[in-house]
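Assemble and predict.
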Amino acid sequence: MTFLITGATGRTSAGVVRHLRAAGADVRALVRDREKAEKAFADLDGVEILDGAFDDGDLLARAFDGVEAALLAVGSSPDQIRLEQALIDGAAKARLPHLVKLSSIGAGPDSALLVGRLHAEIESHLAASGLPHTLLRPASFSNNLLMAAAPVAAAHSWAGAAPTGRVSYIDIRDLSEATALVLRDPALQGGIHDWTGPDAYTAPEVAELLSRILGHAVSYREVSAQERRSALAALGTPEWFVELRVSLETGAESGQIGAVTTALRELLGREPRTVEEFLTENAALFGAR
Ligand SMILES: NC(=O)c1ccc[n+]([C@@H]2O[C@H](COP(=O)([O-])OP(=O)(O)OC[C@H]3O[C@@H](n4cnc5c(N)ncnc54)[C@H](OP(=O)(O)O)[C@@H]3O)[C@@H](O)[C@H]2O)c1
């Protein structure tokens, strides 16, 4: 059985490749950067690497040939809609038996999140393609909290526009494991999986957790969305990514990304990793000595 993993060098996808190989499945990795993929999977056999542009019809015909199921997971960029839609068209042309799309919590045409609106557009293209598919809508990745690491390490504080909004989190390692299970098991396919870890936090509550883990006071400083935009732009962040980042905070305030579900725990058959575990493992990045 062969599975195609698109964007296989990505944070989620690379873990999926490893779980599939551990289960004995053959993996075809579609990437834009062959050298990066060869390094990432140097210790694995059974991974075939295909590289090139994700809108190259000939490449896609080779990529989807003989594949049982594929994971659609291109990283966030202004090109994501175009690339994922081209991949969906390639899959439909090849009559792929099943496509698993990595979408996002809060996906919807009226989402407060830029990523939510972007994924809604891709989801609707997928629905129109007629391809059998499954939608994965994971919560915010715990890794997003690393955006606070440098300011906390430097000044025991970080700033944002989400003083009260609750955010549910998922550890990418759990997401990768669960995604591989869905790819391999047709009984888990179809419909929507809303996956989160066991808990949700406001930013001030994350500050309390960090204070406990680091052994000194850490604070969250509330600023307006406009102040956040200006601060990110001043760091040289491209406009599109500024909007993506700020809408994660305004989306939290709108209450759209704080729900916790038990679906991931039920699927994995164990408690998913917590935010506290993630922050403790990464305490050095937040300045722990
Ligand atoms: N971050 C969150 O909190 C969160 C929450 C829920 C859902 N999601 C969704 O999860 C998905 C995957 O996220 P991720 O963090 O695992 O992805 P990622 O690591 O950022 O990237 C995944 C892959 O996409 C490739 N890629 C990015 N831009 C590309 C381009 N223009 N052309 C070709 N390849 C490109 C990357 O290639 P390289 O390795 O060469 O860079 C990588 O292989 C995204 O759709 C995101 O919206 C994210």
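The first helix runs from residue 11 to 22.
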